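Q&A log
Question type: sequence-to-structure
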Amino acid sequence: MTRNTGAAVYVAGHNGMVGSAIVRRLTSLGYVNIVTASHSELDLVDQRAVRAFFEANRIDQVYLAAAKVGGIEANNSSPADFIYDNLLIEANIIKSSHDFGVPRLLFLGSSCIYPRLADQPIREEALMTGALESTNEPYAVAKIAGIKLCESFNRQYGRDYRSVMPTNLYGPGDNYHPVNSHVIPGLLRRFHEAAANGLDEVVIWGSGTPKREFMHVDDLAAAAAHVMELERSDYCAKTQPMLSHVNVGTGVECSIAELAGLVASVTGFTGRLTFDSTKPDGTPRKLLDVSRLRSLGWQSTISLEDGLSDAYHWFLVHQGDFRGRILEGACGSPS
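Response status: OK
Response body:
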């Protein structure tokens, strides 16, 4: 579609890693009417509050990047919180968007929606064809529900609500909690502290053999804006039926052991890497098929090495700000 930089664009979860990256991207594209609301201003699990927000603001586009997220340990210890909060957030925003006539919405999901043992690389058609990874099943079920909400409003009411499924994300604004973080921020913090304290060993959860695909959040934001701006006819031609979802990733994978080596190099750690195989590995392999996204005219540009250096620089600048919390609105799958 023709870019309307004056459109009122609501970014839900703008304080989180993905939401803040989307705000940066939209600003760089010239958008001048970006609507945001912090958690203290708007509780997204409160249906009445969300409806009142949409009634008070004439919104043209919604980026639904708000979510409760965390790593394997957080998902294992708080499964009820993860499924309940995420279901409410997406249901409230998608329904209010429909009720108040928002023409276009982009829902940001997670690659953990796919079966644990899906054929690799994972195509969009793999959705709901097998059992999910047990360590993050509640979160994944909530994200699947978000996709189906968008599809259902498109089918029943002719809405143009789209979904993108990012691979594992990292970058500025990530959560560096020592327990509740995803794999890259967790490793960056651990290796940084080990190097700073002169330690000769870093212990890493799992065997190191699982393979993952990692994407810098600024790449994700660029892809999200690209998908949002596509003409409806172009998007539908690649995503039938019912304006379904699109994978967003780099198409490149590496093992956790290889990742740990890169993080050690970036942080200057020169000691021993030890893998604790008594800890869970999660899904053995997870690489997204991004051919559909490429057919829509977009592909990743930030390499893992460059992205890790950027993420570590952000960590060094902001490490004093961390309070050990799960950041509001961050989006991406647990490792």
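Response note: Residues 323-335 have pLDDT under 50 and may be disordered.
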